[in-house]
Design a protein that fits this description.
Strand order of the largest sheet: 1-3-2
Number of strands: 3
Distance between the termini: 78 Å
Structural class: mainly alpha
CATH architecture of one domain: Orthogonal Bundle
Mean pLDDT: 86
Low-confidence stretches: none
Largest sheet: 3 strands, antiparallel
Order of helices and strands: HHHHHEHHEE
Radius of gyration: 35 Å
Length: about 170
């Protein structure tokens, strides 16, 4: 049996106390953007299901949705703040690592930027712009720029990298 064949078997007629009631229900259904049939079914089912302990009314579900949206927005805001803090800490760490290369060379072991070494190893030739982009270095920061240059020059002096017209090449 198709939907049209069962339509008369599923039909229920109700009489409201007044035309005013009917108009009110129709306006509420229109406001919710549903047919009058769906509006009535939803409200009757809602009324019947209120006896179930786990049942939530539309208002309760809407409140829960709004609470979850609010919580989601707070978590997003918190995440943005933490991302900013992490970025600043990473920048400070790069600056701290760069300090040893800004001092006068002494016969001591220096800690090279691990990300710089990994980048040079991974790619055949690395341009200076690619290095700045990969390490997230602000080109307006003269201390960090100088430190990267000193690291590259020192690596070249040790024969680990070679400067070419196209960029830096890892020799190993």
């Amino acid at each position: 049996m198709g939907k049209t064949e069962t339509i008369l078997k599923r039909k229920v007629c109700i009489y409201l106390p007044s035309i005013k009631h009917k108009k009110r229900w129709e306006e509420l259904a229109k406001k919710q953007k549903v047919s009058i049939s769906k509006f009535i079914i939803e409200h009757v089912e809602n009324s019947l299901n209120q006896e179930d302990p786990g049942y939530k009314t539309r208002a309760e579900m809407q409140k829960e949705i709004n609470d979850l949206k609010k919580e989601n927005e707070e978590l997003r805001k918190d995440n943005r703040i933490k991302r900013i803090v992490i970025d600043k800490q990473e920048e400070e760490l790069r600056r701290y690592r760069s300090l040893s290369f800004l001092e006068k060379p002494e016969p001591k072991v220096r800690k090279y930027d691990r990300d710089l070494i990994n980048l040079l190893r991974k790619e055949k030739i690395v341009t200076y712009d690619r290095i700045l982009e990969y390490l997230k270095i602000d080109p307006r920061d003269p201390d960090v720029m100088k430190a990267i240059s000193v690291q590259l020059e020192t690596l070249e002096e040790y024969g680990i990298v070679h400067s070419t017209q196209k960029g830096w090449r890892w020799i190993g």
